[in-house]
Amino acid sequence: AQSVTQLGSHVSVSEGALVLLRCNYSSSVPPYLFWYVQYPNQGLQLLLKYTSAATLVKGINGFEAEFKKSETSFHLTKPSAHMSDAAEYFCAIDTGGFKTIFGAGTRLFVKA
Amino acid sequence: DTEVTQTPKHLVMGMTNKKSLKCEQHMGHRAMYWYKQKAKKPPELMFVYSYEKLSINESVPSRFSPECPNSSLLNLHLHALQPEDSALYLCASSQDQGIAKNIQYFGAGTRLSVL
């Protein structure tokens, strides 16, 4: 069975600081992995996707994630946080059918 | 156009009411989804339609009835709901084939309150 685990339900950073949101996956086959962001009162928006090409994936809004098979990780980073980055972030894994399994989510707070 | 449009944005209904949620996309996607999202939780898959046929029903109670009239539209008919059904209902769509088939595009959701 495939799964994702997000470490930390809440992360707080200062504006301009590094953002690091952690995601570990479990999969018996090469996974397709995603990061989605959800702003208050909105739906989910795709930030980036890993589909077995480059292990360092660049997404929108300055975010990137690195796929590390040896660590079964797909952590999301951004060098410098902005107030507008405050949102809920979901790591997700494609099960190969129509089902996407979402992690529990990490709420990012950005302090001025 | 990468937009999935959901109406209404907010809905308040009594437990004896019948209402419908609507979802529309014009990206040519042939897979459409309904999710339920409770506060501070990830989305939970309810239904998936592929080429206008119901492909997945995640054991959703029959008081929720999905309908896919054509490739661009998806409805969710609601009847005799319970207060615990109050949630954000999200619609999504995706291509049905290729490497991007499970990249889902989400609507903004319908915030449902059942009184």
3D structure, described in words:
- The complex is a heterodimer of chains A (112) and B (115).
- Chain A has 112 residues and is mainly β.
- Chain A contains no helices and 11 strands.
- Chain A has strands at 3-7, 10-14, 19-26, 32-38, 44-50, 56-58, 64-68, 73-78, 87-94, 100-102, 106-111.
- In chain A, strands 2, 4, 5, 9, 10 and 11 form a 6-stranded mixed β-sheet that branches.
- With 115 residues, chain B is an all-beta fold.
- Chain B has no helices and 11 strands.
- Chain B has strands at 4-7, 10-13, 18-25, 31-37, 44-50, 53-57, 64-70, 73-79, 87-94, 105-106, 110-114.
- In chain B, the strands form 2 sheets. In chain B, strands 2, 4, 5, 6, 9, 10 and 11 form a 7-stranded mixed β-sheet that branches. Chain B has a 4-stranded antiparallel β-sheet with strand order 1-3-8-7, with no helix packed on it.
- In chain B, a hairpin with a 6-residue loop joins strand 4 (31-37) and strand 5.
- Chain B is globular.
- In chain B, 36% of the residues are buried.
- Chain A binds chain B through residues 32, 34, 36, 41-46, 49, 51, 90, 94, 97-100, 102-105, 107, and chain B through 4, 6, 31, 33, 40-43, 45, 48, 50, 55-56, 90, 92, 99, 102-109, 111.
